[in-house]
Amino acid sequence: xxxxxxxxxxxxxxxxxxxxxxxxxxxxxxxxxxxxxxxxxxxxxxxxxxxxxxxxxxxxxxxxxxxxxxxxxxxxxxxxxxxxxxxxxxxxxxxxxxxxxxxxxxxxxxxxxxxxxxxxxxxxxxxxxxxxxxxxxxxxxxxxxxxxxxxxxxxxxxxxxxxxxxxxxxxxxxxxxxxxxxxxxxxxxxxxxxxxxxxxxxxxxxxxxxxxxxxxxxxxxxxxxxxxxxxxxxxxxxxxxxxxxxxxxxxxxxxxxxxxxxxxxxxxxxxxxxxxxxxxxxxxxxxxxxxxxxxxxxxxxxxxxxxxxxxxxxxxxxxxxxxxxxxxxxxxxxxxxxxxxxxxxxxxxxxxxxxxxxxxxxxxxxxxxxxxxxxxxxxxxxxxxxxxxxxxxxxxxxxxxxxxxxxxxxxxxxxxxxxxxxxxxxxxxxxxxxxxxxxxxxxxxxxxxxxxxxxxxxxxxxxxxxxxxxxxxxxxxxxxxxxxxxxxxxxxxxxxxxxxxxxxxxxxxxxxxxxxxxxxxxxxxxxxxxxxxxxxxxxxxxxxxxxxxxxxxxxxxxxxxxxxxxxxxxxxxxxxxxxxxxxxxxxxxxxxxxxxxxxxxxxxxxxxxxxxxxxxxxxxxxxxxxxxxxxxxxxxxxxxxxxxxxxxxxxxxxxxxxxxxxxxxxxxxxxxxxxxxxxxxxxxxxxxxxxxxxxxxxxxxxxxxxxxxxxxxxxxxxxxxxxxxxxxxxxxxxxxxxxxxxxxxxxxxxxxxxxxxxxxxxxxxxxxxxxxxxxxxxxxxxxxxxxxxxxxxxxxxxxxxxxxxxxxxxxxxxxxxxxxxxxxxxxxxxxxxxxxxxxxxxxxxxxxxxxxxxxxxxxxxxxxxxxxxxxxxxxxxxxxxxxxxxxxxxxxxxxxxxxxxxxxxxxxxxxxxxxxxxxxxxxxxxxxxxxxxxxxxxxxxxxxxxxxxxxxxxxxxxxxxxxxx
Length: 965
Known about the structure:
Elements: H1 28-42, H2 44-51, E1 60-61, H3 73-91, E2 101-102, H4 107-119, H5 129-153, E3 164-165, H6 169-184, E4 189-198, E5 203-204, E6 210-228, E7 239-244, E8 255-258, E9 263-269, E10 272-277, H7 281-288, E11 298-304, E12 312-314, E13 328-332, E14 344-347, H8 353-361, H9 400-407, E15 411-425, E16 433-442, H10 490-500, E17 502-504, H11 508-518, E18 522-523, E19 525-526, E20 537-539, H12 549-562, H13 572-576, E21 585-587, E22 591-592, H14 594-599, H15 601-610, E23 616-622, H16 629-641, E24 646-652, E25 655-656, H17 673-680, H18 682-691, E26 698-699, H19 702-725, H20 742-763, H21 767-796, H22 802-823, H23 827-837, H24 859-885, E27 895-899, H25 910-917, E28 921-924, E29 929-932, E30 936-937, E31 944-945, H26 956-964
Parallel strand pairs: 1-23, 2-3, 7-10, 8-13, 17-24, 23-24, 25-26, 27-28
Antiparallel strand pairs: 4-5, 4-16, 6-7, 6-12, 6-15, 8-14, 9-10, 9-11, 12-13, 16-18, 19-22, 20-21, 27-29, 30-31
Helix pairs in contact: 1-23, 3-18, 6-12, 6-15, 10-11, 10-16, 17-18, 18-19, 18-21, 19-21, 19-22, 19-23, 20-21, 20-22, 20-24, 21-22, 22-23
C-alpha cells in the first residue's frame, strides 16, 4: 500500500487582502443625480461661504450665456472649466463664490419669439410693445430654468438660488445707471454713421454679432463721364471706371475717390476714352471683353492722380435729375489701391466707413436711401420701393440695377462670379450691409471727462447743464490707482488697462490690443424692443439730450421699481419732473446693444455683492470674446471707472468634433454634452475638459472620450485600492516618518514634489498639467511602483509589522491628499470616495482644504537614491520580459538578478532591492543578467526564498504570522 502525500494547505484565509464596498464600475450616470440631491440638502454652497468667511476672496465673474436653447458642448466646456478653477481656489483655502448669470435681452431671444409669431402668421410690429416684451421675458425665464438644471447636472457649484439675470429689475436699473454715467460725462453722442445692419432683423449689429462666410457676389465695372477736370482738361468727355462688388450702392453714389500718388492712364477703346490706374489695365479690360491680340485699346496718355483734384463726373443715371443730376466730385483717398479693381473707388457715404469719413471731410452727407429692410425708399427716383439689396437676384448681372446701367451705356462688365468673404448675422445667417442710420455712440477718442458732444448728423449737441471739462468723472479712482501713462480718451485708458491685466495665454493680449487700437466708436443703440432702453430725452429744438442728475436719478429709481418696462409706460412727464415739458422732448426709443448690458454685469454682480470698487480676479470665456464680452466689459468699466473690471482674463478655444471640424447640425457631427452625461456621467466630461489643452481648440469624439474614460477608470481604481488597503485603519497604527522604511519616505518625498507642482498648476489655471500630474503620479509612482512593491507587505506581513504599518500610514496620507487633489476635477467621484471611507450625512469632501503633508527630513537624499533604484528596476524588468515570453519564468518572483553594482545605492541591502524588483534574489556583478532561481516557493506569499525547502511550505515570515494568528 503506497502513502498518498497530504494535499498542500490553502493559506488564502490567512492573507490580509484589501476589502471595500467601493465598486470598480462607476455607474456615474445613475449615482451623480443622488449626489447632487445630497449637496442640495446640505446647502453646500452656502455652507462653504460660511466656512470661508473672512478668508481671501477669489472672484471668477461668470460671462453670461444667452437664455436660449439647451446647452451645447461649448457651454459645457466653459462652465466645467470655471467650476474646476473655483473649486481649486476653495481647496486652497480662499472664499471662492461663483454667481452664474444669463444674458436675457437682445436679438437671440427676440428672434425666437418672432419665429413663433411668424409661424402663426403674426407680425411683431402689430403687437403692443409691452405684450411683446412680456413674451420675451417669459421665453428667457423658461430657458434660464432649463439651462440652470443642465449646468447643475455638470456638477457646477454656485449660487443657483440667486443667479444674476440682465432682465432683473436691479440689473436693468444698474445698466441704465451706467448709460447715464456716460451721458453725464459727455461720453455719448448721436450721429449718422454707417454701421453693420441686418435687413432681416432690421437692426444694427455689433462686430461680435457677425460671422464671415465665403460667398459669390456680382462684380461690375461702371463708367462715370468726366465733365470737369481743371488740372487735366483732356480728360473731359472721358469716362472714369470704377469696380465694385456691391452694385446696390451705385444708386446712392455721391463721389469718386482716387489715389494722389497713383499713376493713371487714359485709354481709347472702341471709340470711347477710359481712365483707370496704370497697373490695373490688363485685368480690368479683360473683364470688359478686351482681347490683347485684337489691336484694340491704345494708351493716349499717363497722368498723376493728383491731377484729378477738382475734377467732377456725372452719375450714369444723371438723366433722372434731382439727386442724380448733381456732379460727383473726385476726392483724394489714402485707402485707394491698385490691388484690385481699377484704382478708382465710387463713394457712397451711406454704406462704407471710408466713404463716410472721406465724404464728411468735403461736406457730403448720407442720404438714407435704403430703409431698415434693405429696400430703396419709396420716394427714391431710381428703384424706389424695390429691393432687398441682399437679394441675390436683385443685384445680379441680370437684375434691375445692372439692366438700367447697361441701358444707360455705363456698364462695361457684370458677372456673378466674384468669390470673397462677407459678413453675415450670426443669428439669422443672412447677409448684413453697412448702412448709415442715426445711432447712439460712445466715442473712443474723445476726452473721458465731460466735453462737447461730437455728433454727426441728427441729435448732435453737448450736455445742457455741464460746462466742458469741468465736472468730475462719475466714478473717480482713488489717488494713485490709475497706472501712469493713462490718456484722456477711452481708447487710451482701455489700452493702458489691457497692459495692466494678466492675459492667459499671453498671446491673447496682442489680439485684444489690436482690436481696441483699431475699433471704431462703440455703437450702442439697437432698433429692437427687447432690451434696456436708451433712457434719454432729446430736446427737439437743440438736438441735445437732457443731462439733469435729478431726472437721471428718477429714471434709475423707476427702473429699480418696475424694470425697464417703466420706459414704455405713460410716465415720462413724471420722470422729467416739473422743470421740463414733455412736449419739448423726443423720448428715445432705441434699446441698448446687448453687449453694453453684459458689459455692465460687473456692476450689478461683483460690485453689488462684494462692495463698490471690487473687481473680479478672473474673467474666463472663449477666444471670440476678445471682441465681445471681454471688450465690452473693458470699455464700460474704463469709461465709468477708469480701469478694467478684471485682474486677469483667461481665454479657451472651441470644442471641435473628433476630426477637428466645427460642430454643425448640417454636418451631423454635433457632440451633445447632455447625451454624454446621460450615458457616461458628468465626471467623464469633466475629465475630458481638464485633460485638454484648452488654451487652443480641442477635439471631442468617441476616441477622445474613450481616452478620458480610461484615465478616469485608472484613477478610480487607485482610490478603490487605497480604500480596500486602509480598511479599519486608525490613528494607533500610525508610524512617525523618521521610523519609516526608505521606500515610504521616498513616496512621501515624491508626494511633496507633486503637491508643489499641482499647486503651481492650479494657481496658473493649467489644469491640463494638473490632471496629467495627478494621473501620472497615481499610475506610475503609486500603482505601477509603490503599490506593486508593497502589496506583499500589505497582504502577508503581520498587522503589527512596522513596514506594513508604515505603508498604511503613507496610504492614509496619500488618500487624504489625492481625494482633495481630485475633488476640483472629479467632483462627484471624489465625494463618493470620501463618503465611502468617512460616511457622514453632514460632511463633504468639498469642505476640505489643500492637504498639509508630513515633512521628510532626508527627502532629497532619499529621493536621489530611489530615483536610481527606479531606473534600475526598469532595466531589470526589461531584462526579465524575454524570459516571461519564453515561459522560462512565469513571474518575476522566479527570477534571480545580477546587477552591475550596488555601490551607488549606499546602504540598500540586496534583500531590499529584491523586494523592490519583486525578484527572488539580487547579487552584484558585471552586468544585468537574469536566471531562473532554484529557491522554492512559499505557499502563502509565493516568494521564492532560501529557507523554503519544498514548494508550498512557509517562509520564516509567513510561518510566524500564521502561528500568531
